[in-house]
Specification:
Distance between the termini of chain A: 56 Å
Strand content of chain B: 5-15%
Distance between the termini of chain B: 24 Å
Largest sheet of chain A: 2 strands, antiparallel
Number of helices of chain B: 4
Strand order of the largest sheet of chain B: 1-3-2
Structural class of chain A: mainly alpha
Order of helices and strands of chain B: HEHHEEH
Oligomer: heterodimer
Shape of chain A: elongated
Largest sheet of chain B: 3 strands, antiparallel
Amino acid sequence: MPDWKQIVRKDLRVLGVLSPEFAEELAGHLEDSYEASQHEGVTADVAFQRTMSQIEGRRKIWLVLRFLQEDVMTGFSRKVALPGLLTFAASGFVSLAFALAHIQPRIIWLADGQFLALPLWDWCLLPICGALGALLSQRNGGSRLQRIAAALFPSAIMGIVLLLIFPVGFTLSRFVPNYGWDTAVALKSLGLWLLGYVAVPAVLLLLGAGVIEKMKRLPAHAM
Amino acid sequence: MASVGAQIKRGSAELAVLTLLARHPLHGYEIAKQIEEQTGGVLRFDMASLYPMLYRFERKGWVKAEWQTLPNGRRRRCYRLTASGRKQLAPLRAEWRAFFQALQIVTGFQNA
C-alpha cells in the first residue's frame, strides 16, 4: 500500500499551510480510491496510476487554485481587507462629498509658514465609517483584533502613503538638481500630516469600532 | 413563481452534497462515491470540487466535521449536516424544483 499521506504532503505541499488536517483527509480519500480500484480487479500499478491522476497535472493545479481561492476568501480578505477597503471607500466618499459641497477643512497656519489642515466635518463622520468596518468584519466572522484592523484600514492606508512620500521625496532630492528639499521642513510636514490624516482619524475610527464592540457585548449583559 | 437565479448551476453540487448528508453523516470519499453511484456516473465530484466545498460548508456552519475511527482502524473526517445546513437545504430544493418545472414546461420533458 503506498504511503498516501507522504504522497499528499510531497505533491500538494503548497496546500499544507491551509489546514494541519488537510493532508490526512486527502490521503484518506486517495487511500479509499486506490482500494476501490484494486477491488475492481486492476493491478496495483494501474490502481496507483488511476488514483494519482486525481492529484496530477491539470487536476492538481485546479485543486491548488480552488483551495487557495477558498483560503484567500476565508482569512485576511474577508475579515480585514474587504471590510477595510469598504471603510476606506466610505471615508473617501465622505471627504469627496464635503469637497463637492465646498466645505473646506479648517486651516491653522503655523509660525514658520506651514499649516495644519483640520477636516472637522470629515472627522465628525469618521466614527460611522469605523463602525461600518468593524461591523462588516464582525459579520464575516472577524476576531476582535480583525474588527479593529478593518476599522483602522483607512488610517493605515493614509499612513503608508504618507510614509512613502517622505523617502521618495528624499531620494528625488538626491538626483534632481534644485529640487528644493529641506529635510527639517519635510519632517515637520510629515508629522503634521500624520497627525491630521492618520492619528486623529485613527482615534475617531476606533471610537466607531468601540461602539460596535460595546453593542456586541450588550446582549450578554442583558441576559 | 420562484425566480431561478444564476447561482442555480453552481448550487447543483451543493444540493447534491447537502441532500446526501441530510440522510446520514459521510466522509469525503463516500460522498463522491455515493453521488457517482446514485446518478449512474452522470454526476462526478473530483477532489478539487468536493473538499473546498465541504470546507466552505463547515465554515458557514452548515456541516460539522469530526474525525472518526473506522472499524478497519483508519481515521476519516465525517461530515454531518447541522440544523443550519438543513435550513439551507430547504430553499435550495425549492429552487431546483422550480428550475426543473420550468424546464419541463419549456421542453416537454417528463420525469422517468
